[in-house]
Please model this.
Amino acid sequence: VQLQASGGGLVQTGGSLRLSCAVSGGTSRIGTVAWFRLAPGKEREPIASIPWRGGIGHYVDSAKDRFTISRDNAKNTVYLQMNSLKPEDTAVYYCAADSRRRVGVWSSSNYDYWGQGTQVTVSS
Model:
């Protein structure tokens, strides 16, 4: 299974970005896809997760108001829509896949496959 994250970039405070996570090479082995981020000087933190087939997204409390996770199985892609971005959202954003269907599980050790990350920079 391979995951490729894209869509990052430089955006001003208050702006929006939509990240994409393209999944290939054995999607039948995937149960859940999630987004994480890693900011300088901080630990990697979860943002949201969604079942690969059916079901709705789940979010950590800090992401519920501004971020939306969705998927398009026809395109084998999971998205993260980010609105009202703030400088503290600056980070490398990663998508990850768990072979099991279990949303709301936030420990990164549960995820078997990881993409390479995409940089998001929010200027003040």
